[in-house]
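Input structure tokens:
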């Protein structure tokens, strides 16, 4: 397939490092030097659903596609306002599509998982046009009193319309042991109408372990997909790396021997938006005129599971 349209949507409310330092034992200096994050967006008047629908509509506009021509809607999401139905069912109805829809929880790798599933369905002749929507609000899962996680995440949504083409040159998905390095259990008192506040069973992350997993798997995944696509790291015009920590992105740059200019970032403004991170970044780079037809793009992400994925795509 190829990406024919892209869109993104972010909540209005900005929470800066300084604001967090007022309620937590942390500082702008610690957050900036350890992660690269300066601020993030959090839900206030919006819902995850609103971001998903907004990003989906923008991607459809960008592609010039009538929603009735969609054959499949896939939403990548970890948590939203509804336990059931799937977020994709609500998005499908709100945009006016008439096709099957499904959600997947691929954590931060959701965009690459969704593109790979779209590509597989396309290859067996089941679909032509697929809408992938990644919409996340990881701040719903953490405790605002927990400085180890509260400073890292932000909400956002990114969507892409995939249409027939042969632009996905290689994809790799992996899973490794270590599910208990990053998890959150259901809060059984969960009330869907009260989801805007933090749950009282917060996210648990063993940051250093996830950091080690991320750096090693990303470099390896990228080397494998480059080899599968029969190209080298130098051939890639732009690397889209999951925006979880600027130090991880810098490490990958160094290990691949590639210049910083090839690694756009927005982590400083949005923090880690889980699966939405890659399509939001792609949308921003495209809008800034940073993509030319024929450019070779590399995507790489990692997250809870522990899962990872990489993809090479011709723009
Ligand atoms: O998208 C999902 C994938 N997630 C990731 O990729 C995250 C990967 N991990 C990371 O990005 C980093 O491990 C973190 C940013 C989470 C943490 O950075 P770190 O350099 O690994 O710090 P650390 O966990 O080793 O903690 C160093 C110190 C500790 O204090 P002591 O034990 O040295 O006294 C922490 O308690 O920093 C302390 N600390 C903080 N201090 C100020 C932890 N969080 C904070 C904070 N503000 N927010």
């Amino acid at each position: 397939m190829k990406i024919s349209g892209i869109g993104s949507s972010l909540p209005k409310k900005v929470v800066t490092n300084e604001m967090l330092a007022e309620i937590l034992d942390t500082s702008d200096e610690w957050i900036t030097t350890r992660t690269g994050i300066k601020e993030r967006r959090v839900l206030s008047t919006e819902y995850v659903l609103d971001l998903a629908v907004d990003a989906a509509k923008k991607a459809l506009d960008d592609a010039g596609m009538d929603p009735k021509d969609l054959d499949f809607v896939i939403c990548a999401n970890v948590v939203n306002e509804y336990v059931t139905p799937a977020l994709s069912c609500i998005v499908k109805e709100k945009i006016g599509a008439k096709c099957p829809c499904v959600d997947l929880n691929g954590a931060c790798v959701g965009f690459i998982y969704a593109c790979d599933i779209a590509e597989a369905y396309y290859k067996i002749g089941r679909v032509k046009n697929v809408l992938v929507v990644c919409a996340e609000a990881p701040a719903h899962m953490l405790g605002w009193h927990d400085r180890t996680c509260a400073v890292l995440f932000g909400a956002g949504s990114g969507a892409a319309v995939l249409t027939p083409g042969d632009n996905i040159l290689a994809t790799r998905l992996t899973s490794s042991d270590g599910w208990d390095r990053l998890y959150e259990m259901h809060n059984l008192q969960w009330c869907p109408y009260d989801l805007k506040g933090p749950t009282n069973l917060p996210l648990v992350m063993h940051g250093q372990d996830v950091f080690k997993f991320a750096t090693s798997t990303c470099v390896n995944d990228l080397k494998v997909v480059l080899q599968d696509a029969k190209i080298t790291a130098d051939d890639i015009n732009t690397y889209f790396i999951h925006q979880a920590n600027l130090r991880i992105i810098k490490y990958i740059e160094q290990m691949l021997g590639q210049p910083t200019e090839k690694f756009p970032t927005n982590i400083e403004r949005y923090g880690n938006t889980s699966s939405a991170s890659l399509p939001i970044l792609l949308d921003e780079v495209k809008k800034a005129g940073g993509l030319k037809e024929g450019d070779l793009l590399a995507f790489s992400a990692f997250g809870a599971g522990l899962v990872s994925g990489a993809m090479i795509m011709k723009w």
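The CA atoms of residues 54 and 235 lie 34 Å apart. The pocket of oxa(dethia)-CoA is lined by residues 26, 30-31, 34-35, 108, 147-148, 151, 207-208, 210-211, 214, 244-245, 272, 303 (CB under 6 Å).
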